[in-house]
Give the backbone structure.
Amino acid sequence: MIALLRRDGRPYETERRASPYLDMLSGDLENSLPAKVGLAFAKALVSGDYLAAHQMLARELRDDLQPDGLKAQYEQMTSYFDAPVNRIKVSHVDPPWSSRPGKEESDVGWAYVSIDSIPPDAGACLEAVCVRVVLESGHYLIGQVEWGRP
């Protein structure tokens, strides 16, 4: 058992080896800022509220990707789904201490949000959005979106 400390000093309890790429536990995953922003973005897309999704974008991305563009990207990504989306969940968030090439000072982190259609009587259709969350003018916004599963 490895004891790691969260930012607030409470310990993580996990069987995993300590590494700079350690996944956060589910409670921390769901409560992190990138997770909250990514989940809100995915829910807006799934509900068809492309204007709300557009308002979650950072200025530079908002100029390049209008609500109609968000709709087109989302519909293209999910065009093969035979049933409505019935599960949206944060599958991964970069730990706050992670580093990667090209990381900018305004970067808060990345969140990978699964968007799934899992009918009870057929195969699953699984997609996702991966978002880079940035701090811009005091607001947590999306600075980059990667569409679909890797």
